[in-house]
Amino acid sequence: MAFSVLHFLYCSMILSPFVTFSVVAQTKANIVIGDSHTAGSSSSPWLVSSPSGDFAFGFLPQDATPDQFILCIWYAKIQEKTIVWFASRDYPAPKGSKVEITADDGLLLTAPNGDQLWKSEVTVRASSAVFNDTGNFVLQDGGSNSVWESFKDYRDTLLPSQTMEKGQKLSSKLRRDDFKPGKFELFFQNDGNLVLHSINLPSKYANKNYFETGTIESDTLSAGKQLMFDRSGGLYVLRENNQKHNFSEGGSGVSVSTTEFYLRATLNFDGVFTFYQHPKGSSSGSGSWTPLWSEPGNICKDNLAEAGSGVCGYNSICNLGDDRRPICNCPKWYSLVDPNDPNGSCKPDFVQSCAEDELTKGKDVYEFEVLTDTDWPLSDYVLQKPFTEELCKQSCMEDCMCSVAVFRLGDSCWKKKLPLSNGRIDPTLNGAKTFMKVRKDNTSLVVPPIIEHKNNRNTMIVVGSVLLGSSACLNLVLLAAICLSTSYVFRYKKKLISVGKVETTVETNLRCFTYEELQEATSGFDKVLGKGAFGIVYEGVVNMGSVTRVAVKKLNSFLLEEVQKEFKNELNVIGLTHHKNLVRLLGFCETEQERLLVYEYMSNGTLASLLFNVLDEKPSWKLRLQIANGVARGLLYLHEECSTQIIHCDIKPQNILLDDYYNARISDFGLAKLLNMNQSKTNTAIRGTKGYVALEWFKNMPITTKVDVYSYGVLLLEIVSCRKSVDFEAEDEQKAILTEWAYDCYTEGVIHDLVENDQEALDDKKTLEKLVMIALWCVQEDPGLRPTMRNVTQMLEGVVEVQVPPCPSQISVQYSLV
Q1: DSSP one-letter string for 636-701
Q2: Contact at 8 Å (CB) between 146 and 124?
Q3: Strand-pair partners of 413
């Protein structure tokens, strides 16, 4: 219901989880274009309520960081100021940020320096706004037609009178008090089925549904067309024939009075979708939200992520609480990777590895922590049957790969290795015993900053630790440094020296950050963008003349002194590289214990998430051609045009990032092996990623820039077909290896099979054939037959004609060797 007079709330509000603040009463004739409010303003706050006063709209300060605000809508008459909609999900608005109603952008949220933080997507110019008693904030054109409304800009909550259409979704918060997008979604599929599934952040890959309404078309029933939350409190899927399908069997018989209770349905941060009620008119808004029903019934069991960690993080155990919400706990002798994320992954607080076991052979260093009815059902690597309980324990104890053994059914022993996924307590296991292998002495994983090595055996432990903690490409540098230092130890039997004090400057144009600056910029290293063997990447915001979003890579260091010098050399070189198809390094941080790299932020994620997202349509053919050209130009620059030749060594979709305009940007090239200008090849151990590795890695052949050409050829076929290079689950075994299938399609004259149902690509058959031919040249077994990246760019641009490629031959060799 529209209203003509809006008044400001006049109260002191106890905000949970927000801090207390007060506002001054104001009255406005209506909301008009140009109205604005500044976060943290003590006078004339643009904080408006619905006519009934049930809902409020404005800025709420965050509890942990009072100078950070959330622009949101919340229930105003109850003590627990429950947020039902919020604007920006990426990061809060700092104090001094402003929200304004504009004709072109509708609601516009800007930072104190004027940078845009968020805006509503209006369909036409807005001329006014209304805030309804339903909690819906609506922007209207001159004819009072809606051009944007909060009810259609879905977050994690639905309110009575709100609907959801096909293709729309709710996305959970990352954590209880963290508004960033979480890993759970309520998605209304185009086939009419309403489902719950988890997402493997930071990608958009969706795991198997752990709840669904089943409202798809059948012989007797029509498909769902709309999710309805009606004014009387009913929540159901409305079918095409207008029949109602209750969202939850548990809620089908629930009768709720909307005159006596506030209602909401929220997808909680832990993946449980819950229908809540809160009494109206109670004294001072007291009372609490009471769950009436929730789905799924047991998320610990129902959510089985075959390609992810499950409800809780890796190595964690999920137990169902009394409110049907999951409780995540680390096993004994394990602790949280991130202490601020109780539902996150757990790490062992002790050393366990085959290399370590080899050194302690014959010593009784492990014991078992015994659990009951606890399982990680997808982490098995071997089943031993028939077996006794004692044989099961003995087998795990003697197996350096075994971290857990589960003995059940009286004769079956399932051995499991880290990381453990989908952990849960399951009473249906009927007394199964779980044996977790832990060290008796609880040896710490943390390597002290200075270690005295008394014998060769300890030296090798440090060598292994450094190698295992590093990225594949940096291992080249590590191996060289380790060989020198190991030789030094063997010859003179002196102690190794870990990284001591480091110089605070690097001779380059990069900015040198302090550790405290980056800790603050990332809110205590909060939001993880990605993880790898070499480190973790966090999202942050720094001030470099203006507020700038960045990606901060925190390296897993404790590097040797020789590697420290190489690290600085890399910074000198990479800091001088600048190309529109490379992710730019902005700065760095060095302390005695930490090394961090600061890169520009890429807003559209990885090429992998764009190509392999099964929920969305294929990206446009034109965009894919643009990306293919961009990657080629970036590699050409690394190989031939920058001051020091760089071989990337790990070209794959996960290492290609996309900026605001979907320009391809190669990342992690600074971690590759750097070659001097007078070098053309190097010999080293195998590295890279399965499916993208050139065959010379396996043949003790010199490694040149042609290894990147090979990887680019595989990547080019993935861009063309929008499928992964290896798919051993494919129904047709001939399609399992993309490079082999592509060559078969080319020789048989059926390259259209590579882009089935992609009309744009089929309409551009000439370009399609050219790209496949270029890719087949790139994946030749003989490096000498592969083109250079300069040749590749010339072929892509049509400067050079593409000749008929020979059979790549022995493509599948690497899949059995990697």
Answers
A1: HIIIIISSS-EE-S--SGGGEEE-TT--EEE-SGGGSEE--TT---B-----S-TTS--GGGGTTP
A2: no
A3: 384, 407
pLDDT for 688 equals 53
What is residue 33's predicted lDDT score, i.e. its pLDDT?
A: 85
* Token duo for residue 23: 């506002």
Tokens of 375: 């399982």
Query: Structure tokens of 689?
Result: 């990623």
Residues (pLDDT < 50) of the chain are 1-29, 43-45, 252, 443-507, 558-563, 673-687, 811-818
Look at strands 646-647 and 116-119 and give their pairing.
Answer: unpaired
Strand order in the sheet with 157-158: 157-158, 261-267, 273-279, 290-295
CB 37 within 8 A of CB 45: yes
Pick the closest to residue 251 from 266, 234, 263, 268 (CA basis): 234
Distance CA 264, CA 271 (A): 16
Q: What sign does the dihedral 42-45-48-52 (CA atoms) show?
A: positive
Residue type, 572: N
Is 166 annotated to bind a ligand? Reply is no
Q: Which of 650, 668, 708, 758 is catalytic?
A: 650
Residue 784, classed as helix, strand or coil, is helix
Q: How far apart are CA 277 and CA 260, in angstroms?
A: 9
Give CA–CA dist 388/368, Å, rounded. Answer: 16
Map tokens 């050079």 to a residue. 800
Show the beta-strand stretches assigned E in 166-324: 169-175, 178-188, 194-198, 211-212, 224-229, 235-239, 244-246, 261-267, 273-279, 290-295, 317-320
Beta-sheet strands, E only, within 280-420: 290-295, 317-320, 326-329, 334-336, 346-348, 366-372, 374-375, 380-384, 404-408, 412-416
- For this structure, is 650 an active site residue? yes
Give the global pTM: 0.55
Tell me which DSSP letter residue 367 carries.
E
In the prediction, which pLDDT does 474 show? 41
- Position of tokens 């390609």? 307
Rounded to whole angstroms, how far apart are CA atoms 246 and 645? 63
The Cα angle at residue 772 between residues 768 and 776, in degrees rounded to 5: 170
Q: Can you give the pLDDT at residue 489?
A: 34
Give the phi and the psi of residue 465 in degrees, each rounded to 5. Answer: -60, -45
Please report the pLDDT score of residue 19 as a whole number. 33
Quote the Cα angle for 417-419-425, to 5°: 85
* Domains of the chain, start order: 1-153 (2.90.10.10), 156-297 (2.90.10.10), 348-439 (3.50.4), 511-600 (3.30.200.20), 607-817 (1.10.510.10)
Place of tokens 């200008």: 677
Instruction: Give residue 691's pLDDT.
Output: 67
